[in-house]
Specification:
The protein is mainly alpha-helical. The protein folds into three domains: 166 residues, MgtE N-terminal domain-like (MgtE N-terminal fold, Alpha Horseshoe), CATH 1.25.60; 120 residues, CBS-domain (Roll), CATH 3.10.580.10; 170 residues, Tetracycline Repressor, domain 2 (Orthogonal Bundle). The protein is built from 23 helices and five strands. The strands form two sheets. It has a three-stranded mixed sheet with strand order 1-2-3. α13 links the parallel β1 and β2. The longest helix has 34 residues. The radius of gyration is 30 Å and the shape is globular.
């Protein structure tokens, strides 16, 4: 990494984006002027090439050359498709792989679609095997075959192993670029070995210690190598009580371990206790961010991450499933109201009050669901405490129903001067908040039991149930006690 690059990484990425957009706007303006000139077609094209490629595109290319791959990825995601592809074509080919890894899945799809088979193969060959495995699901099969053929046998086996693990496992997060030494060598030997590297693998805070058969024995922090005598053996200083991960473990368990113990890297060992790979904090942070984004999308009922500049048709399709479900539940809620038409006709005040019952229960249920989803993500809910947690949430909902239902009942009384209506309002609020708590706990737990993301469609389902339930409870109680 050059000093010049390090300087630019600290700049505001928003400023970089504005500069790139400004250059693109200048280019578009010149292109428009040239095409409006009354010149023969060939002369127009010659003038266009001269003015664009020698000025603004060259300036834009120079600007992109200064930026870090992650900053370019951010800029690509913020540009419309036509500008995105123009910028993408200006990026140096030796950085394509790094940028493809950095961009979101949705944007990556549009970039890959604009690349040839050879370009894709060359981009993949720039990456480490663990990064190729991350990129593989988005690459055509014939490109993957080309990449396999181009790799050395050892890396080919590593890639095959990395691709065999599910996306939510430790195996999908690990990389094979690590430093390991034997326990019977001295620190001087280790130091000589480390100096043979042009640069150490990223996030190397410790050296992994193995025996002659590659069984994992412990770790040797880099700082201990520096502050101890050169003739000290590794086995005397290595730390054996360390967090070890297994490739089949859930990635969220690794994320929790990194957060709890402030890890920078952790070894991955196989079922035989042999060192298999490592997981680093930067990959874990990426995983946590992606999971957070996915959870937000799932709560809103979006099927997948969406390119904000994708076509209207594609974006609309991404939102159809849960909108269709929402429409169906809305029809159901309307039929619930329809069943009480006579009750509403006899007491019009009910029509103005029932949205209050449904609305506050929906909000309360969303609060409960958010708490449950977060607790599930942190592994805090077990079979032993699930019942206790449910009783607690029901108690909270009952208390909130009594307090805020009481306020709503007083509001109804002062508006319509009916004690009975106020009592019905209070009772309906209590019952619907209790229903909201049950659903707010039940949906995430059910989704987890089914092996799905607990957040999938939670907001849509909660709104549907608390609306329909609130209308039914409120109008039902009104029919029994007021009419």
């Amino acid at each position: 990494m050059t000093e010049n690059h390090e300087h630019h990484y600290t700049d505001n990425v928003q400023e970089h984006l504005h500069q790139v957009q400004h250059l693109l706007d200048k280019q578009a303006l010149v292109e428009t002027v040239v095409h409006n000139q009354e010149l023969p077609r060939d002369e127009r094209h010659e003038l266009l090439d001269k003015m664009l490629h020698k000025r603004h595109l060259a300036e834009l290319s120079d600007k992109l050359e200064e930026l870090h791959s992650a900053d370019i990825a951010y800029i690509l995601e913020a540009l419309p498709i036509e500008h995105r592809l123009l910028v993408w074509n200006l990026v140096k080919a030796d950085r394509d792989g790094e940028i493809l890894i950095e961009v979101s899945d949705a944007v990556r799809e549009s970039l890959i679609a604009a690349m040839s088979r050879d370009e894709l193969r060359e981009a993949a060959e720039q990456l480490d095997t663990d990064e190729i495995a991350d990129l593989a699901p988005d690459l055509p099969q014939h490109v993957i075959r080309d990449v396999f053929k181009s790799l050395p046998i050892e890396e080919r086996e590593q890639l095959r192993a990395a691709m065999s693990y599910p996306d939510d496992s430790v195996g999908a997060l690990m990389d094979f670029n690590m430093v390991h030494v034997r326990e019977d060598v001295t620190l001087e030997t280790v130091s000589r070995y480390l100096r043979r590297f042009d640069e150490l693998p990223d996030h190397t805070d410790q050296v992994f210690v193995v025996d002659r058969d590659e069984h994992f024995k412990g770790v040797l922090p880099i700082n201990l190598i520096v502050v101890n005598e050169p003739d000290t053996e590794v086995g005397q200083l290595m730390i054996t009580d360390v967090v070890k991960l297994h490739p089949d473990e859930k990635a969220e368990h690794a994320a929790q371990a990194f957060e709890r113990y402030d890890l920078v890297s952790a070894p991955v060992v196989d079922e035989d206790g042999k060192l298999f790979g490592r997981v680093t904090v930067n990959v874990v942070l990426d995983y946590i961010r992606e999971e957070s984004d996915t959870e937000l999308l799932n709560q809103a009922g979006l099927l997948e991450e969406e390119d904000i500049f994708a076509s209207v048709w594609k974006s609309a399709q991404n939102r159809w499933v849960w909108l269709a479900l929402n429409l169906a539940t809305a029809f159901f809620a309307s039929r619930v109201i329809g069943e009480f038409e006579q009750t509403i006709a006899q007491m019009v005040a009910l029509a103005t009050l029932m949205p209050i019952v449904a609305g506050i229960a929906g909000n309360s249920a969303n609060q409960t669901t958010t708490i449950i989803i977060r607790s599930l993500a942190l592994g805090q809910i077990t079979q032993g405490n699930a019942r206790r947690l449910m009783l607690k949430e029901l108690a909270i909902s009952g208390l909130n129903g009594l307090v805020w239902g009481g306020f709503a009942g007083l509001f109804a009384y002062f508006l319509y001067h009916s004690i009975a209506l106020g009592v019905v309002m209070t009772a309906a609020m209590m019952l619907n908040l209790t229903l909201g708590a049950l659903v707010g706990i039940g949906i995430p737990l059910m989704m987890q039991r089914l092996g799905r993301d607990p957040a999938i469609g939670a907001s849509v389902l909660l709104t549907a149930i608390t609306d329909s339930g609130g209308f039914f409870i409120f109008l039902g109680l009104a029919t029994i006690f007021l009419i």
